[in-house]
Specification:
Layout (H helix, E strand, L loop, with lengths): L12 H4 L10 E2 L11 E14 L10 E9 L15 E4 L4 E6 L8 E3 L16 E2 L1 E6 L5 E6 L4 H7 L2 E7 L6 E3 L7 E3 L2 E10 L38 E4 L2 E2 L14 E3 L5 E7 L4 E6 L3 E6 L2 E2 L12 E3 L5 E3 L4 E6 L5 E10 L6 E11 L1
Length: about 375
């Protein structure tokens, strides 16, 4: 039997703007729907400038890069502006509120890997861009995530508008979810969060709305698309790990945000994320167990039957593409200084562009 065809009503001019959100999302200051009392709160201000000092001048004489970050905006005990943006750390099951000030031009915060309601997802083309708004979400899975602006995303993430996001299990910091019967908890002593990134300093001279399609254009008409931009031409010339700038291919980064210190018998949890646009190849000089990917523990119910944790022998490289996250457990059995590195490869040609090195020191 043939299915009945139901005629769709015509879209009125007043309604048509709602179907233009992909290129012209509304800039609102709405109330948070179904707002609950939070267990934990954060305050963030978008598009705040901060200088990233370089260890040496670039060929054009540049000795610093202007970054735009998502700054802490807490009414008390406010953290200094920093790149990457400040850590958001919560526990699985908590009601989280993030009070965001997007400024006059409108921005968003997207909590990458979290699964909130559409209104709180922070993807401008699907919801709205904000002047100010309180995001509300409740993480269902502990793991490693990050948050970032989702307006003109390609440019804004490159400008530095992102930060680390950790969801701890209910037991809190010091525990991570991983295959470990009976409760699938692994205790750790030392934690590191590597956000590997690369910077094309040309992009940092752009205005933050550069090459956006303008309101009123037909999103189905290719002739209205911008074609004079450089956001498809990525030539990074500065390479960083968690905000610490690499000096050259051989000198290790000793910054405490990157270099790891532990003792024999301790358990190290390494959280790594590709926060850039190159293909990144990580290598650690200690045996490591990969226990989670992209915020989901391997081998742990309810999806455990589709995956399992696995061992990487010391020095075995692995590659991550943009926004991928891994969690690795290391248990050093001897003292020494062990290498750790990130190789950056061009996402189109595959050519190796640079190496950032650091170390794990075991006493």
């Amino acid at each position: 039997m043939a299915l009945q065809t139901i005629q769709r009503d015509l879209v009125t001019p007043e309604e048509e703007v709602k179907f233009q959100k992909f290129i012209s999302p509304p800039k609102d200051n709405p109330d948070t729907p179904d707002r609950l009392k939070p267990d934990i709160e954060f305050y963030r201000k978008l598009m705040v400038g901060v200088d990233l000092n370089l260890p040496s001048r670039l060929p054009d004489g540049t000795d610093k890069v202007k970054m735009m970050v998502i700054a802490d905006d807490a009414p008390k005990n406010r953290l200094p502006e920093q790149f990457p943006s400040p850590l958001i750390r919560v526990r699985q099951g908590q009601i989280v509120h993030v009070h965001a000030d997007g400024g006059q031009d409108g921005h968003t915060i997207h909590f990458h890997g979290i699964e909130p309601t559409p209104m709180n997802d922070g993807v401008g083309k699907d919801s709205f861009e904000i002047g100010s708004y309180t995001y509300q979400w409740q993480p269902k899975h502990s793991g490693t995530y990050f948050y970032h602006c989702h307006k003109n995303t390609t440019l804004h993430v490159e400008l530095g508008m992102y930060g680390p996001l950790i969801v701890d299990p209910p037991e809190g910091p010091g525990y991570v979810t991983g295959y470990n019967l009976p409760g699938h908890l692994i205790r750790y002593d030392v934690e590191a969060f590597w956000a590997a990134d690369e910077i094309d300093t040309r992009w940092h001279d752009l205005q933050h709305n550069a090459f956006l399609t303008h309101s009123g254009h037909d999103p189905n008409d290719p002739s209205t698309f911008t074609s004079d931009g450089i956001l498809n031409d990525f030539r990074p010339n500065v390479f960083v790990i968690s905000g610490a700038v690499r000096a050259n291919d051989t000198t290790p980064i000793t910054d405490s945000r990157v270099a790891v210190k532990a003792k024999v018998g301790q358990t190290i949890l390494m959280r790594v994320v590709n926060a850039g646009y190159t293909i990144q190849q990580f290598s650690f000089g200690l045996d490591a167990d990969v226990i989670a990917m992209d915020g989901r523990p391997l081998g742990v119910p309810p999806t455990g039957k589709y995956s399992a944790p696995f061992r990487l022998s010391a020095g075995t490289p692995f590659r991550l593409t943009s926004a991928q996250r891994w969690e690795l457990i290391m248990r050093p059995t001897r003292t020494g200084t062990f290498p750790a590195s990130v190789d950056y490869f061009d996402w189109v040609t595959g050519k190796k562009l640079a190496t950032a090195r650091s170390q794990i020191t075991v006493a």
